[in-house]
Specification:
The complex is a heterodimer of chains A (647) and B (604).
Chain A lengths: L4 E2 L23 E10 L5 E11 L14 H10 L1 E10 L4 H4 L4 H6 L4 E8 L6 H15 L13 E2 L12 E6 L6 H9 L15 H5 L3 E11 L9 E12 L14 E2 H5 L13 E8 L2 H4 L6 H8 L4 E3 L5 E4 L3 E7 L12 E4 L12 E8 L5 E10 L5 H4 L1 E3 L2 E12 L3 E12 L2 E3 L1 H4 E7 L8 E10 L4 E10 L15 E3 L3 E9 L11 H7 L2 E6 L3 E3 L8 H24 L3 H13 L3 H14 L13 H30 L3
Parallel strand pairs in A: 2-11
Antiparallel strand pairs in A: 2-3, 3-9, 4-5, 4-8, 5-7, 6-7, 8-9, 10-15, 11-14, 12-15, 13-14, 16-17, 17-24, 18-19, 19-23, 19-26, 20-21, 20-24, 22-23, 25-28, 26-27
Chain B lengths: L33 H23 L9 H13 L3 E11 L6 H16 L7 E11 L5 E3 L17 H6 L2 H11 L9 E10 L9 E4 L4 E7 L5 H17 L20 E10 L5 E4 L2 H15 L5 E10 L8 E3 L4 E5 L25 E9 L7 E4 L10 E4 L3 E5 L13 E4 L2 H18 L7 E4 L2 E5 L8 H32 L7 H23 L2 H19 L12 H46 L1
Parallel strand pairs in B: 1-2, 1-4, 4-6, 5-18, 7-9, 7-12, 8-16, 11-13, 12-15
Antiparallel strand pairs in B: 2-3, 5-6, 10-11, 14-15, 17-18
The chains are: A alpha+beta (647), B alpha/beta (604).
InterPro entries (chain A): PIG-T (IPR007245)
Pfam family, one (chain A): Gpi16
Protein name (chain A): GPI transamidase component PIG-T
Chain lengths: 647, 604
């Protein structure tokens, strides 16, 4: 940019090949944005941003784009990604309080750190290469160390325990990745309006990162065009889920906190993103079914829904939808402008208590045992008071069963003994045959690949608790393989518990326009929950050890060698004679010297110890020795200087 | 203690016989050699072991041809690469002119013009002149190159030039000289037509065609003979040899081609404020219709790929001012460095471009309603006609104002840039692209002797321009290859503890080979082959230089080596050397004693 030149061009004569064709005839790239707000039972508020960008089937993907981010399209083209999901999460989803059996939690409750899975459309032999290249590309795109997933010890190939059944699927997660704004900014860059306009302008970094849970997700899938010679379309779904604590003035009362968009985010929506096809804000209220379910067909009743004895909304919703136990208020933000920003507020008037729908079983995972040698991992599944437990279970042979899939990756340094797998149901140990329906184990190879365990449990419906424990030995890493802060311990990625017979969806009676978020909510999604990340302390070596060993060995060798050489060239007879001759005469100075030496050595004075020569000669010998030593040291220093400063 | 001991001979039975025997200075037996032998053996075995130790701590360094690299760069520095070009001048309608005289005069003119700039990538020309008199009889100079096809006499008719359009003339000349290229470099021809004084006009028209021909048409040229010769030599040198590039314009060192020989043209349409209006374009059609011929034409020089995107909310980073006189917002040239807003313009293209391709950004900026219409003002106060500017090695920016700057409706209007407007934009783009390569965007080349009309090609670059480009490109590639290899060799020589893998050595070897090949191809006139092998040479040299292992300086440095081995070697070497020294000293001493004893005995 040093030199800028103004062009002055006489126009080149170009033949016009352009045939104007109306643009409306073909499918275009579409973008839509939505925000779902939901008060949570524990006085917090969930905000779920949802952006969807669709590129229709076209052959110019990766080259010419209008709304769809070119970078993503090039990624899909280059690595032949069929489906991919990348999530950055900070904090842990509270399944009891924030729900475990709704589409939001099953799709957006993600493990801590980075999780990436991708399905490729390449031959089997090339899947691993594509995965490695993809991790590097994503790592550059999102300013994260996703490239650590490149090594074969950090990813796995799930078969049926994860979700999408494909043999070209790769899964990896980095539990220790710190997520912050540097990951959000490139993610926002993929949106056409970035955070300049529309709903995404609410993403005030301090308020987003002050929340209790923060999960930023990017899901992309290709849609087959069905036409010959036409590349497939791409659907890019970007969501950001945050759980925020509204600031309350009345602490201690049972009334749920009153909040507005401005108080949550510190900003207001000053208008939609003009590029979005639809731009909506949804407010989902749960647990109001008992209150209003009698009859609400009339306009009056509908009015009462958003301004009633319990709570009051600051704006009139454009539509209200009803589900079995929740209401969805829909607001269009088309009309808002700079002068009249959209600021939805919710004021509670009476203390209301409700609970979220729970997943059939609540999962937690912990470590057992102590010491740096071995231990055990336990996964505990506890029954929740979910009324939906039976809905998805199947009644085979007259007895009701509940299926649960467990998917777990073990790093290679956790050497799991699969024969020690124990399953307890209601504190009773069961053999594998009774509850274990399917199991797939791929053992780890040292420094080569991580281990993976997938199992399908079939538990009786009345189960109170189920526990799985498995023992392991801790491996030793090579000194180079330790991460910078080795003493902190090593993370075992979260296990995934999914319930294949349970699908969460919001079942609204009314049909609504095809708002992408709305259709996502209506879609049946697999109920799944991630467990905690475990921290395993491994024996960490003293990293200066090699040097100590070298130094000690060398010293011992030198001592041995030197003394051996001295012994070899010793003249015993001569020394004896010398000692004898020394014993004849003793000088005063010599005696004092020898006494001094003896004192230093801590030995009794060797009596007949006197030199035959004069003290002068003795001292001259001393000085020559000293001189020699001095020369030696100086020589070594000179050599050191010579070698250390090369030309 | 040994050296202070004085030997007392145990077999002192001779003391009685020899009263002068002094045990302090003499000995009667020969001194033993055992201990001396042991200590020297140990010392020598240590010394012998040192090379082995040295071998074990040595790191692998693939041998690089340092000498060859130096000689290559010296050669490229000292003798600039020259390509053979053959120039052919045809004088039609000249009565009495000696072709040999003309030839020597043109040659002098060319020499004079090329003298100051014997730069790399210029021509090593051979000149032939044909004179065709009005009766279609020819006389020509003897061509030094027998393979060059000769001009068939009488094919060029004088009346063709007066009547037809320039394009038609160009086509007819192409037919005349068809089959004349391809032998020993490219052949460039200038046809000078002396028209019969038809309409009394004194105007001399000089046109440079799309291919490798130029013609000068005028009447009474024979009288202005010196002028014509000067113009012919000017066409040869300034246009065909240097591509009409101005001295001091963008230089050959700024060839916007990536080191892997790729260029990515990234076109972006920036809607600075989509709340006012949203413009979209159908770039795919433009790409197919207008840009594909250009990329095809440039294929020997670079592998070009085209991308486009539309970005929103991208304000420029500096403010413009309202000018009442022309009723528009004005952006001054002096503020241009602050036009590109790198914070908000997310132009970056990622996965499509591999690491070392050159990305040229071409940006169409649509001003927001608050600054519409926006015009760029030249330093002399005029408004830029193209409303665009370039930044060398980065790309170009065009400001495109929507037709109607008033937007009263509440909602933003969604529009598509009309194909006509888009075509105009692409024309400016092409001009900018030509400028980035160092060519002029104007279709006229003016010199002191007059101006030349340059016929533009629909491919953006005419054939002779492409020739100039490939000459410059070869030259630039070889230059960059030699500097890269030179810095690699300097780097390698300055870091003795750097590991150099075989791969790097091989890449350097192949790069040298390709560079040599490019040089030899250039001397025989293979334009495209020398361009491609020079490209390869540069790419290999860059690959070697940017090899991931190149900076893996061994952690086993001298300091480290010293720290690891000194606990063993310092004490041991001290012992061994001292023992050997002492034994040697003692041996000498004892030997002296023995010899004095022998001498004493002899005297006795």
């Amino acid at each position: 940019m040093a030199r800028l030149i103004l062009t002055w061009i006489s126009l080149l004569i170009l033949q016009s090949y352009l045939i104007p064709i109306a643009f409306g005839s073909k499918e275009v790239e579409e973008f839509s944005e939505a925000l779902l707000l939901k008060p949570l039972p524990d006085r917090k508020v969930l905000a779920h941003f949802h952006f969807e960008n669709r590129a229709p089937p076209s052959n110019s993907h990766g080259r010419h784009h209008h709304l769809f981010p070119k970078a993503i399209s090039q990624l899909v083209q280059k690595f032949r990604v069929k489906e991919m999901e990348l999530s950055f999460t900070q904090g842990r989803w509270n399944h009891e309080q924030w729900g475990g059996f709704d589409p939001l939690s099953s799709m957006n409750a993600k493990p801590v750190g980075v999780e990436l899975w991708a399905v490729f459309d390449v031959p089997h032999s090339e899947v691993d290469t594509s995965w490695k290249n993809l991790t590097h590309a994503l790592s550059g795109l999102f300013c994260a160390s996703i490239n650590f997933l490149e090594s074969s010890t950090s990813y796995a190939t799930p078969t049926w325990g994860f979700g999408p059944n494909s043999d070209k699927l790769r899964y990896g997660s980095l539990p220790r990745e710190a997520v912050c704004t540097e990951n959000l900014t490139p993610w926002l860059k993929l949106l056409p309006c970035r955070d300049k306009d529309g709903i995404s302008a609410l993403m005030n970094r301090p308020s987003v990162y002050r929340g209790f849970y923060h999960s930023q997700r990017l899901h992309l899938s290709t849609v087959e065009s069905g036409q010959e010679g036409l590349a497939s379309g791409i659907v890019l779904e970007q969501t950001l889920t945050v759980v925020l604590q509204p600031e309350t003035l009345f602490v201690g009362t049972n009334i749920q906190p009153t909040w507005s968009i401005n108080s949550l985010f510190g900003r207001k929506v000053v208008g939609r993103c003009v590029l979005a096809k639809s731009s909506n804000v949804y407010l989902q209220m749960e647990g109001l079914s008992g209150h209003e379910s009698k009859n609400m067909d009339t306009e009056m009743e509908a009015h009462e829904l958003w301004k009633n004895a319990d709570f009051e909304l600051s704006l009139k919703p454009d539509r209200i939808l009803r589900e079995i136990n929740s209401f969805l208020f829909i607001f269009d933000i088309d009309i808002s402008s700079d002068s009249e920003p959209f600021d939805l507020g919710l004021t509670w008037k009476l203390p209301v208590k409700w609970s979220c729908q729970q997943a059939p079983l609540h999962a937690s995972r912990f470590l057992m045992g102590s010491g740096n040698e071995r231990g055990a991992i336990a996964i505990l599944l506890k029954a929740t008071d979910s009324q939906d437990k039976l809905s998805g279970s199947d009644l085979t042979n007259g007895c009701c069963t509940l299926k649960a899939n467990i998917f777990q990756i073990f790093p290679w340094y956790i050497k799991v003994y699969y024969h020690t797998l124990q399953i307890f149901v209601d504190q009773q140990e069961k053999t594998g045959m009774e509850v274990l329906k399917k199991i797939n184990v791929s053992p780890s190879t040292d420094k080569m690949s991580s281990g993976m365990m997938e199992m399908m449990l079939e538990l009786p419906c009345q189960v109170k608790s189920a526990a799985i424990s498995i023992e392991y030995d801790k491996g030793f890493l090579h000194i180079d393989e330790y991460p910078p802060d080795a003493n902190q311990g090593f993370d075992i990625p979260s296990a995934l518990i999914s319930f294949p017979d349970h699908h969460a969806s919001l079942d609204f009676k009314e049909e609504l326009s095809k708002s992408p978020l709305f259709s996502k909510l209506k879609e049946k999604s697999l109920v799944r929950s991630y467990t905690e990340v475990l921290l395993v302390p491994l024996t960490t070596p003293d990293f200066s050890m090699p040097y100590n060993v070298i130094t000690i060995t060398c010293t011992v060798f030198a001592l041995y060698f030197g003394s051996l050489l001295n012994v070899l060239r010793r003249r015993i007879g001569e020394e004896e004679r010398f000692l004898k001759s020394q014993g004849k005469k003793t000088g005063g100075l010599k005696k004092m010297l020898s006494r001094l030496v003896a004192k230093i050595r801590g030995r009794p004075i060797e009596e007949p110890s006197s030199s035959t020569e004069s003290p002068e000669a003795r001292s001259s010998v001393f000085s020559s020795k000293l001189f020699f030593k001095f020369i030696l040291v100086a020589g070594a220093a000179a050599a050191w200087q010579y070698f250390s400063t090369d030309k | 203690m040994e050296e202070i001991s004085d030997h007392l001979n145990p077999t002192s039975d001779t003391s009685g016989l020899m009263p002068e025997f002094d045990p302090k200075t003499m000995r009667s037996s020969k001194p033993g050699l055992k201990r001396l032998f042991i200590t020297t053996t140990v010392l020598f075995s240590f010394l012998l072991g040192l090379p082995f130790l040295w071998k074990t701590v040595e790191i692998y360094r693939s041998p690089l041809p340092f000498h060859d690299i130096d000689s290559l760069s010296n050669q490229i520095e000292s003798t600039p690469l020259r390509f053979p070009c053959s120039f052919h001048a045809v004088f039609v309608g000249f009565q009495s002119t000696d072709p040999d005289k003309l030839r020597s005069e043109i040659q002098d003119g060319i020499k004079q013009l090329t003298q100051p700039s014997s730069q790399c990538g210029s021509c090593d020309f051979s000149l032939s002149v044909t004179v065709q008199n009005p009766d279609d009889h020819c006389s020509e100079t003897l061509t030094s190159d027998p393979s060059m096809c000769s001009y068939r006499c009488g094919v060029i008719k004088r009346n063709v030039f007066g009547a037809g359009s320039d394009v038609a003339v160009d086509e007819s000349l192409a037919d005349v000289f068809s089959g004349c290229s391809g032998h020993g470099g490219k052949m460039y021809s200038v046809v000078v037509v002396n028209e019969e004084n038809a309409n009394g006009e004194d105007e001399v028209k000089a046109v440079v065609g799309k291919r490798r021909h130029a013609w000068i048409v005028g009447s009474g040229l024979e009288e202005r003979y010196g002028d014509v010769v000067a113009r012919v030599s000017e066409i040869f040198v300034k246009v065909f040899m240097n591509g009409g590039m101005e001295e001091g314009s963008i230089h050959g060192e700024f060839m916007p081609v990536g080191s892997d020989g790729r260029i990515v043209l990234s076109f972006s349409l920036l809607n600075s404020n989509p709340r006012d209006w949203i413009y979209d374009w159908d770039f795919q059609r433009i790409d197919e219709a207008l840009l594909a011929p250009v990329t095809k034409a440039l294929a020997p020089i670079a592998n070009i790929s085209v991308e486009s995107q539309v970005l929103y909310h991208t304000p420029k980073s500096s403010f413009s001012s309202w000018d009442e006189k022309i009723q528009s917002y004005i952006f001054k040239t002096s503020d241009l460095p602050f036009f590109v807003n790198s914070n908000e313009w997310h132009l970056d293209t990622s996965a499509g471009a591999s690491g070392r391709s050159k990305i040229l950004q071409f940006v169409v900026y649509i001003p927001s309603g608050k600054e519409c219409p926006l015009h760029l003002q030249l330093p002399n106060g005029e408004i830029s006609k193209t409303n665009g500017f370039i930044s060398p090695m980065w790309g170009g920016v065009i400001v495109w104002n929507p037709g109607n700057c008033e937007n009263d409706s509440e909602r933003p209007s969604r529009n598509t840039i009309s194909p006509q407007d888009l075509e105009r934009i692409v024309e400016v783009f092409l001009g900018q692209f030509r400028q980035l390569f160092g060519f002029k965007s104007e279709a006229i080349y003016t010199s002191g002797l007059g101006s030349y009309k340059i016929l533009p090609s629909e491919r953006g670059f005419t054939e002779w321009e492409l020739d100039v480009l490939s000459r410059k490109h070869t030259c630039f590639n070889l230059h960059s290859c030699s500097t890269t290899l030179g810095s690699l060799s300097r780097l390698v020589q300055s870091l003795p503890r750097m590991i150099i893998k075989d791969e790097i050595g091989e890449q350097v070897k192949y790069s040298m080979k390709a560079a040599k090949l490019a040089q030899s191809n250039a001397s025989t006139g293979g334009y495209s082959s020398s361009a491609s092998s020079s490209r390869e040479a540069r790419s290999l040299a860059e690959n070697a230089f940017f090899h991931p292992s190149i900076m893996s300086v061994s952690y086993f440095s001298y300091e480290h080596c010293f720290a690891v081995y000194s606990p063993f070697f310092l004490p041991v070497v001290g012992h061994v050397v001292l023992a050997a020294l002492r034994e040697w000293k003692r041996y000498k001493q004892e030997k002296a004693k023995y010899s004095t004893w022998l001498a004493r005995k002899k005297t006795a």
